Description:
Helix content: 25-40%
Strand order of the largest sheet: 1-2-4-3-5-6-10-11
CATH architecture: 3-Layer(aba) Sandwich
Radius of gyration: 18 Å
CATH class: Alpha Beta
Amino acid sequence: MTGTEIELPVADGVLSGVDFGGHGVGVLLVHGSGHNAAVWADVASRLVSGCHPIAIDLRGHGQTRLDSTGPEQYWRDIGDVVTALGWDRPVLVGHSTGGYAVTAAVASGLAESAALCVVDGVVLDDRDVSLAEHAAARTAETADRLRTMFRYGWEADDDQMHAYVEQCVRDAGGDRLNAGARHELVEEVTRRSFLRRGHRWARRPAIEEIATVTAVEPDADVFPSIEVYDRLTCPMTIVLAEDGFYASRRDEMRTVVDAAPGRRLIGISSNHNIPMTRPADLAAIVLDLVRGRAATSAGNVG
């Protein structure tokens, strides 16, 4: 993965990240649950000619050693990261859980953005349905399924870790989420998901991390439900994976997009992991947002 490892200060420590270089408009890339900064490598390599992309490892993920202490952790950290970078109205790009995180960071007023790019990471239900779904994500059955599918929280020695990474690469072609991704990228993302702890490796995230960030409060002001979009005033592009988790909910996304000017819905023929499987298409969308931001800034100066 081309890029420079960096640390970005937040309220009680630092997040790990990757600065991919480039110049001009800042673009913050935020991964989804179970992923890490490496997921953006192929997108970022296509962005550096037109902007300055930086990707972060959210708490409990990748090489960030901090764990979350509450359900609002991810988006509150994004506000701190944007402040630490000193960026003026960056473009914020979030995939899956990261899509809601960048949305909530802007909706809360903690981050000001020239444009949002939400990649297969929307919240379309009302509060009651969302609460029920988040409660279901904290059951013992869900925890067991995540351990079985992704080995979240697993501790491994060197040989076990390397064998698991190699297995994920071998299985990528038949994996519903990784099919179509470069095998080298699958290797980078999987390897970065292990954090060294003493003589062993911990597979991130742990089940406890998932439980913490899904324990939403019913009366929270900024809440993971469809009402959050009413709080946005900046342009927003929703990227829909046509074979992803939200493929059957295009009409609901269209309603969100039509509710305010400056919003777009763009479909991509892909599974959920668009940053890994369709990086060129996603980079082109982001660069379009960057050019729009640059044109707006030039107009304001003029």
